[in-house]
Amino acid sequence: MIALQDFPAARFDEFQIISVSEYAQDLMDNRSMEEQAALKKAEDGLLKAFPEGKSNEHNKLLSIVNKTKAGEVEVGFLWYSLQDDASAFIMDFLVYSEHRGKGYASKALEALKATFKKDGLTRIGLRVAPDNHGAIRTYYKAGFNVTGWNMSCEF
Questions:
Q1: What is the pLDDT of residue 155?
Q2: Per-residue exposure over 92-129, b if at least 16 CB sit within 10 Å of its own CB, e if not
Q3: pLDDT < 70 positions in the chain
Q4: CA distance to 27, 88, 96, 113, per residue, from 123 (Å)
Q5: pTM attached to this predicted model
Q6: Which residue among 44, 98, 108, 119 sits deepest, i.e. has the most Cβ atoms within 10 Å of its Cβ?
Q7: What is the pLDDT of residue 101?
């Protein structure tokens, strides 16, 4: 069974390293930012969202935990931001590489949607890179639809 639990504040640095690295890489790949500028933007954004290094009223960081009879194993994490319109936006969502392909992402999204429904939220948004085909399949399977396109022009 997959459960979503508060990410331990004592391990925030661990999350920060992964999240900043991945977001900076995305900025370099998709916005042609220089590495140092991308790292700064990623670090600044994360520290703005989590000024105390833990979940808060608007930004929630959760561990994705696989609970079995043999025990519990963290298989990934999920960060979402609550919006003003009874919705949430998934800011970062990762199933660790050794746990991919086992349906954990789909089950985590099901658990998240159930929690949001119970809390009165009505919509979840996210951004996914167009070449992340596995994630796109997972999101479609979970009921997500394309609502627009990010486009840019470099000159």
A1: 74
A2: bbbbeeebeeeebbbbbbebbeeebeeeebeebeeebe
A3: 153-154
A4: 26, 6, 26, 9
A5: 0.91
A6: 108
A7: 93
CB 115 within 8 A of CB 62: no
How far is residue 30's CA from residue 109's CA, in Å, rounded to a whole number?
25
E strand segments, the chain? 2-6, 59-68, 71-82, 87-95, 123-126
First-to-last alpha carbon distance for the chain, in angstroms, is 49
Residue 25 pLDDT:
94
Q: What is the per-residue pLDDT for 88? A: 97
Return the structure tokens found at 115.
């929690």
Question: Which tokens in the block code for residue 22?
Answer: 């991945």
| Residues in Cβ contact with 118 at an 8 Å cutoff, skipping those fewer than 6 apart | none
